[in-house]
Each structure stands twice: as structure tokens, then as C-alpha cells.
Design a protein that fits this description.
Blueprint (H helix, E strand, L loop, with lengths): L1 H21 L11 E13 L6 E11 L2 H9 L1 H13 L3 H4 L2 H22 L4 H4 L3 H12 L2 H10 L30 E10 L1
Antiparallel strand pairs: 1-2, 2-3
Helix pairs in contact: 3-5
Length: about 200
């Protein structure tokens, strides 16, 4: 019976050691695409003075390789700080529509990458010349007057470009210039608003 316990102990130790070796023995990101959860979920007040309102957001960032994932994980406190500032500055109008949430997602991703590039000593303006940013700028320049007028009418603007009848004009994801950085995408895994 004593011999049986020894063998079980040896077997258990060897299985545990091989598992630790296979996993790399730490929390190093895998090569390739990594998804990094922002944990714990963010809970922030929003909407300015008046009734207290809350957003609870569970978010994840995507990084395209292990080096970018390592950089994102290293700067999670900075990322959380930026996200708290961004979410708490939102208005009821922005967060209550699908378009507003998409704008918020794209804007937050750009701001996170700006902060990461700044803290790493890179100029984010040099990164703005990628194909996506150029496409967005060209698209805005190429819009004809007909498109602009149709967009203004759809957004509740008069022909002069001013909002009609005091309507609030919401920002659009197309208004955000993408910033290429270590975070390639931002996901709202859960987004709860208490009004």
C-alpha cells in the first residue's frame, strides 16, 4: 500500500509539471490574436448633473499578436482610466441608440490607442496614415453636395448645416479617425444602463 501511494504521488507530480511546461508556466499571451478582458467590469456615473445614472460595461480588447497583447495587458490601468473618463462623459442620447454605442466603441478604441502610443513614446499622428484613415478622409472629401444634403436632412439639420428645431445631432462612428495601435478592436461584451 505504501508503494501505491508513492507511485500516485510521482504520477501526480509529473502530470502537474508537464501541464505547467505546456502552458509556458505563466500568463504570457499566445502568439496570434489575443482577446484581453477588462476586468472587473466598469461601473461609472454618466449624464452630468441631475438624476444619478450608471453604466456597467464589460469590455474586451483584441490584439493581433503576442507583443501587442503584452503591451495592452501591461497598460490596463491606463486603459481603464481612459475608459472611465470616456464612459462618464457620455450623454443619454449617445448611449441609448445602436449608432451611438457604435460611435462610443470606435471612439474609445481610438482614444485607447492614442494613450498607449503616447505612453510608449510614439506619435499617433504618424500612425494615422494607414489605409483605413486615408479611406475615411477620402470618403469625407468625395461626398458630393447631394450626399451632404441628404445626410443633413437625415441628421435633422437644415440646408445651412444647423440642427433643426433644437434637435440633438449625434456623433457618428464615421466621424472618428481610426488610430492604429496595439489594440485592434474593442468589444462591448455587456453594456447595461441604469437610468
Amino acid at each position: 500500500m505504501g508503494m501505491k501511494k508513492k507511485w500516485l504521488a510521482i504520477l501526480g507530480l509529473s502530470l502537474g509539471a508537464s501541464g505547467a511546461l505546456a502552458s509556458g508556466g505563466g500568463n504570457a499571451p499566445a502568439e496570434g490574436v489575443n482577446y484581453i478582458a477588462i476586468s472587473p467590469p466598469l461601473i461609472v456615473n454618466y449624464g452630468g448633473p441631475g438624476k444619478v445614472r450608471y453604466i456597467k460595461a464589460e469590455l474586451s480588447l483584441r490584439a493581433e499578436n503576442a507583443a501587442d497583447a503584452t503591451e495592452v495587458m501591461h497598460h490596463l490601468p491606463l486603459i481603464r482610466d481612459r475608459l472611465v473618463s470616456i464612459l462618464s462623459a457620455q450623454t443619454e442620447e449617445v448611449i441609448s441608440t445602436a449608432e451611438g454605442k457604435e460611435y462610443l466603441r470606435v471612439y474609445a478604441l481610438a482614444e485607447i490607442n492614442k494613450a498607449l502610443l503616447k505612453v510608449e513614446g510614439h506619435d499617433h499622428h504618424a500612425e494615422d496614415h494607414d489605409a483605413d484613415a486615408d479611406h475615411g478622409k477620402d470618403h469625407a472629401k468625395d461626398k458630393g453636395k447631394k450626399h451632404a444634403d441628404a445626410d443633413d436632412k437625415h441628421a435633422g439639420k437644415s440646408a445651412a448645416g444647423e440642427p433643426e428645431h433644437g434637435e440633438v445631432v449625434l456623433p457618428s462612428a464615421a466621424d472618428v479617425i481610426p488610430v492604429k495601435g496595439p489594440a485592434s478592436d474593442l468589444f462591448f461584451n455587456n453594456f447595461v444602463v441604469q437610468k
